[in-house]
Amino acid sequence: MKTGLVLLFALTIGATPLLAQTSTVDITDNALVLDYTEPEPNPAATIRSYIITGRGTTGFGATWTGTGITSSTAAADVIANPESTSVAYAHNGSLPLGPYANFVGRAVDDSSVLIRYTRTGDANLDGLVNDDDVTILGATYAPGVPQPSWALGDFDYNGFVDDDDATLLGVFYNPNATPISAPTATGGVAAVPEPATWLMLVIGGSWIGMFGWRRR
Q1: Which residue spans within 54-171 are E strands per DSSP?
Q2: What is the pLDDT of residues 185-205, one digit of tens each?
Q3: Is the pTM of this model over 0.85?
Q4: What are phi and psi of 43, to 5 degrees?
Q5: CB 11: neighbour CB atoms within 10 A?
């Protein structure tokens, strides 16, 4: 499945563990917002696990050809410039420099998980690798201390903010670059203003099921 910016209230990749091993969400160069209603569990850790299987490995050497959440655009970037782009994610309410009110054209709240294709080193998911990202990694850099969060600087998904992440940030640091932007959705999936309904996107191989929306 390829997608533009889509607001989801639940995301399941594979209706069963077996399907989860063979199912893929390809965000190409776009973005997703996964919204949930507190006190429901924060799904960020699950999203992280989907991205790890999509990138194909932790540490250096990502191919972006695995199952889960992946990006065919990042996979193409590997050929010309390995490690230069990635699929990033963050729990909006936990962003070190504060939450977004609007994320690539979509109003979001603190209980949202933001997912997007962006440059490696872009800790705050703004499409740039600049001084904000340096500030974040400088504050969280702690080799050997588990910090499994892209938004804290774990850019290689190995669970730590360490020398490898500092290297990636240094290589791709470019505050003067044109920001990578993700388009807002122009059709297809849209919110339906009906209470007490919900959306679950279930992807099993090439089978896709979509069920309803719930407004918060």
Answers
A1: 68-70, 85-91, 102-103, 106-107, 112-119
A2: 433 222 322 222 222 222 222
A3: no
A4: -85, 10
A5: 22
